[in-house]
Structure formats: structure tokens, C-alpha cells
UniProtKB/TrEMBL annotation:
GO terms for molecular function: ATP hydrolysis activity; ubiquitin protein ligase activity. Keywords: Acyltransferase, Transferase. It comes from Mytilus edulis (Blue mussel). Residues 259-272 have a biased composition (Basic and acidic residues). InterPro entries: RNF213. The lineage of its organism: Eukaryota, Metazoa, Spiralia, Lophotrochozoa, Mollusca. This is RNF213. Its EC number is 2.3.2.27.
């Protein structure tokens, strides 16, 4: 567009006003402005910011209203005046510098992954790395270890974003997204898609591990409160058995059972 403006100025033997030139350049890059507006729109819808969103909602509405009014029956823009565009595009421009192509790509993927984001919000403060150890034990459905790794990576990526409270500057959200992208994370959009395709299985795996953790805590509490330890020497090896009553039934655990309990992540939680 810069070249075309110069040609037009030479042909008309006149110099375009700076404001007009800038607006023409922005109009030439209209697709990019549309992507910025869409990124803002997706963010407002998915992350549900509670403060200082009116300004950005107004930008989105103004942009869409501008082109809705100016479209003819054939879908083409009609009677578009520079003064109509200038104010709206200037407002979009003030936001666009915070939204890179990589950020836009992630937001575009998230548009179809709101249920995954809701799940991440539910487990945001939990350490889900133990899901890797449980993959082989999960009997309900098959889930690849790489998919679980993707979930762990996606959670790490979004952790500071989900935990942060955004104040007066909505653009802080986009800046934080960009910061995360520069922190060594790779292929996040692809990993989000992988997690979405397997979300049901991942949730089932998480629930399975969570239930197992609760059961582990119950067993450990019973051992600590009511357990009686028996030690027996067999072939120069000490065998340990712990016994207690649970719901009027006799329960016992041998050395192998106790070792298994010690290896579970929830064992360390019980010790705290």
C-alpha cells in the first residue's frame, strides 16, 4: 500500500495528510486487525475477566458494527469513509502490538477447548505428574503416556495465566501469554488439541488416581490408629504384617503391600 500511495501522490501532484496515509496503511492490513479483534473476543469469552473489560468489549463491538453497517447485499463494503475507520482502527492498533501471531494461534485453538481449560482450572493447584505413573495401571480406556505428558505441559503453560488476577490492564493477559511462549514451551497448540481429543480419558485417569489416593489415605489412617504390627523371621528375612479391623472385618497388609503404600504420592501427603 505504501507504494500505491506514493504513485497516487505523484499522479495527483499532492501530498497525502499523515492521518489519511496512516489510515490507508491500516486498511491495507485489515485482515490482521480482524485477527486482533477476534483474539480479544475469544479471550473475553473464555477467561471471563471481571474488571476493566468494557473498553475492550467496546472495541470489539465497534469494529464489528463498522463493517456490518457498511456491507452491501453482495457482502462487499460500500461507502466506507476514512473518518469511519480511523477511530476504530486506532483503538485496535493500541491492542494489536500485544498480540503476536503465536498468541493468536493459541487463542484460536482454545476457542474449541473450553472444556479442557475448565478441567485445568479444577486441578490448577494439584500436582498431576503422578498421572504418568498411573498410565499403565489405568484399565478403563487406553491413554498414551505422551498424551499425559502433553496435559502436564499444557497445565504448566497455563498455570500462571490461570492463577493471576488481572487488574486495570487487560493487555497484561496477552503479555503473560507471550512471556510463557518465550519460556521454553513448544508446540502448545498441538498439545492442546491432543488433550482435547483425549479429554474424557484423561479425566477418567485423573479420577482413578484421585480415588486411589483417597483410599491410600484411609488405609494409612487405619494403620496408624488401629494397626498392630507383627514381625516374623523366615529364612533369615524379617516379614512384617500389620493387622486392624475395618467395618468389623479383619484386614491385614504384608511387606509388599506396605512397600506399595510407601511408593504412592499420597503417602507423603499423609506424613505432613
Amino acid at each position: 500500500m505504501e507504494k500505491e500511495i506514493v504513485i497516487a501522490e505523484e499522479f495527483c501532484n499532492t501530498k497525502s495528510p499523515t492521518a489519511l496515509r496512516n489510515t490507508l496503511l491500516k486498511f491495507a492490513d485489515l485482515m490482521s486487525y480482524g485477527k486482533t479483534v477476534e483474539a480479544v473476543q475469544i479471550s473475553l469469552k473464555i477467561f471471563k475477566f471481571k474488571t476493566n473489560v468494557e473498553t475492550y468489549t467496546d472495541v470489539v463491538n465497534s469494529f464489528h458494527k463498522l463493517f456490518k453497517v457498511k456491507k452491501g447485499k453482495d457482502g462487499n463494503l460500500q461507502d466506507m469513509f476514512m473518518k469511519d475507520m480511523e477511530a476504530v482502527l486506532d483503538r485496535v492498533e493500541s491492542i494489536r502490538k500485544f498480540i503476536s501471531d503465536e498468541v493468536s494461534e493459541i487463542l484460536e485453538v482454545l476457542k474449541q477447548a473450553t472444556s479442557l481449560l475448565q478441567f485445568l482450572e479444577e486441578v490448577v493447584d494439584e500436582d498431576i505428574r503422578n498421572l504418568i505413573d498411573a498410565v499403565e495401571e489405568h484399565s478403563e480406556q487406553f491413554v498414551r503416556e505422551s498424551t499425559v505428558s502433553d496435559l502436564i505441559e499444557v497445565k504448566r503453560f497455563f498455570y500462571p495465566i490461570l492463577k493471576k488476577t488481572y487488574g486495570d490492564e487487560f493487555t497484561d493477559f496477552f503479555s503473560l501469554l507471550q512471556k510463557q511462549l518465550k519460556s521454553g514451551f513448544h508446540s502448545i497448540p498441538a498439545k492442546i488439541n491432543d488433550c482435547m481429543e483425549n479429554l474424557h480419558t484423561l479425566k477418567a485417569l485423573y479420577k482413578n488416581v484421585a480415588n486411589r489416593g483417597e483410599r491410600t489415605k484411609e488405609i494409612i489412617d487405619s494403620i496408624v490408629d488401629r494397626g498392630k504390627f507383627c514381625f516374623r523371621m523366615e529364612s533369615q528375612k524379617c516379614e512384617v504384617i500389620v493387622k486392624y479391623k475395618q467395618d468389623k472385618k479383619n484386614v491385614s497388609h504384608n511387606s509388599s503391600d506396605l512397600s506399595d503404600l510407601r511408593s504412592r504420592p499420597s503417602f507423603n501427603e499423609c506424613r505432613r
